[in-house]
Each structure stands twice: as C-alpha cells, then as structure tokens.
Write a structure and sequence with these properties.
TIM Barrel, 46% helix, 5-stranded parallel β-sheet, alpha/beta, two-stranded parallel ribbon, single chain
C-alpha cells in the first residue's frame, strides 16, 4: 500500500508516550512514528525551511509533505525528536506561549488528569457527564444535548468517538471556558490532583525551543493561551492572543515567527485578518477538508491517527 494525496500537506502530531510519558488517548510511541515516516517515505518529507520557502513561492507539488507538532509538549521533544534526527528531518513546532511564562495551560493539564486518573477515556467521560448532572450547569447542558447529533459534529475528524464529540461539544459550545473549567477543577480537587508538579512534566522549555530553532526546525504561533474555541473570541481578543504569542516567541528564538497552526482548528475571518496583519505565512488547519478558495491561511494537514491506520507492518 502507498500513501498518496494530490495536495501537498502537513502531517500533524500531538502526543507521544514512553516510560516517562503516559499512554493517553491518541498518543503514539517512537516506534509508531518511525513506522509512519517509513510508510510515507522519508524522501517525500521536506525540511521545514524548504516547505516554508516553497509555500511562499507557491512551488509546492503534489506529494510534498512536512511534519508538524502542536502544543509545545515535552513528550514531543523526548520521544519524537530523536526519531526525526535519525532520519534527518526537521519540522514545524507550533507553541502556545502562556506556558513559557509559568502558567498552567488547562487543556493539557486536564488531559494528563484524565489519562492518569481513569482506566479508560470512557471512564473519564462517564465521570465528567455525571459531574455535570449533579452541578448547576445541568439546566443548560441537558436541553442543548436533546438536539445534538454526534455523527454530524466534527465529522471531518473520523477518529473521534461519539463520546469524544459529545464531550467537545459540551466543552466548547454549551459550557464555554469558565463553566467547563469549573467542572474540571472540581474533579481535580475531588481527586486531590497536584497541578504544579504535573505541569513541570508537560511542556518544553525556552531552551528546548531555541535548540530546535538552531537545528533548523521552525517554531510557529499557536496562540498564547490555547483557547479551544478561539473563533468565539472577538477580533481584539484574537489579536491579543497572537500579538502576545508572536512577541514572546520572538524573544525566545531571536526572530519573528511567521508560520502558525490554528488551535483545535478553530478560526474565522477575523482570525485570518489578524494573522494577515501580523504577516503570518504557511498557516495550517487541522484536517484535510477542502476550502472554497485555496488559502495560505488554511493549509491542509492529515492527522497521524489516519496515517497509522494505513501503515503496513514493517
């Protein structure tokens, strides 16, 4: 079996596991990454700088691929980077910047909590839905879910389960950030979960980002605080997210980042306008869906989970 998609695109990675990093939902091993690269064909994967140059010059060709990582995760540095070095591959690393200022980014903190506290992701979902049922938010969640159609929500992300879709819909469109954080924080408190100690295990440091940049990798924007529904923010709040992120990354790597990826694939016309004004280029979305008009602000990416399904034993 060979992998061929007519459009040039990125391959998107998030979580990895090994002896130091737990095997959460969607996480893959170093061996899995090596299999994916061999399956795709290392020679087809452009260096990050070559991809960026060809993208700007509009000379990308069908079959051109690049590797991308979202969220500035320590597991990517520990597990994936040695494999990239083995193949001589450089990648795009899209880093939210609030964590580089000592802040605890809740998305990853909550993910680590559900990975290490519950036997399965569905055990977590059961506890989450049960917590809502016994909270003051039941009155807004129950009516909203009466018309929810799991098979239609996030349908381009075929690897999501019904519970995945239900959870994300409640989080992003029913509760919103404050109410969702209240629910999750109550669950963390009930489990006596150590937030600060956990935080030191989750994210790369400034020194690691500088090392990546000096080795030829490209560090790009991924917002400041990583909202899961960035498109719900007004234009000024979106501008603040990306201005802070750009300023912080410029301080760290010594040059202005011009590439980025949309957090949780959440963006709108305001987002693209903001990014255009910030001179962003090579901007990636999080799936392979076709856009009405090809855009430098919506470059396609395939999730590694879809590639892994195709990988033949090596």
């Amino acid at each position: 079996m060979t992998y061929h998609v007519h459009r040039p695109h990125g391959i998107m990675f998030h979580h990895f596991y090994d002896h130091a990093h737990p095997k959460g939902q969607g996480a893959i091993s170093a061996n899995d990454l090596e299999k994916i690269i061999r399956f795709l064909g290392p020679d087809r994967i452009l260096t990050a700088k070559e991809w960026a140059q060809r993208s700007l010059a509009r000379t990308l060709r069908p079959g051109n691929l690049c590797i991308t990582f979202d969220d500035n995760l320590l597991c990517q540095y520990d597990v994936a980077l040695p494999i990239l070095r083995h193949f001589g591959i450089t990648a795009f690393w899209f880093a939210p910047t609030a964590v580089l200022e000592g802040n605890l980014e809740r998305l990853e903190l909550y993910r680590f909590f559900r990975t290490t506290t519950f036997d399965t992701i569905d055990d977590f979902y059961s506890a989450f839905f049960r917590t809502i049922e016994h909270s003051a938010y039941a009155a807004i969640v129950e009516p909203a879910m009466m018309t929810f159609k799991a098979d239609q929500y996030l349908k381009d992300f075929t690897f999501y389960t019904s519970n995945d879709r239900r959870f994300r819909f409640i989080r992003d469109h029913v509760l919103g950030p404050d109410k969702y954080n209240n629910i999750m924080d109550s669950m963390l408190d009930a489990a006596d979960f150590d937030r600060r100690t956990t935080g030191r295990r989750l994210w790369m440091t400034e020194a690691m980002l500088r090392e990546l940049a000096s080795d030829g990798h490209i560090i790009g924007l991924h917002s400041h605080t990583h909202p899961t529904n960035l498109a719900a923010l007004d234009r000024n709040d979106q501008l603040t997210e990306y201005q802070k992120s750009k300023a912080r990354l410029t301080e760290i790597i010594g040059s202005k980042p011009i590439t980025m990826s949309h957090p949780c694939n959440s963006y709108n016309r305001d987002t693209i306008d903001v990014l255009r004004n910030l001179a962003s280029k090579s901007v990636f979305r999080a799936n392979m869906a076709m856009t009405e008009v090809p855009s430098d602000f919506e470059l396609p990416r395939e999730d590694h989970a879809n590639i892994l399904k195709l990988v033949e034993p090596i």
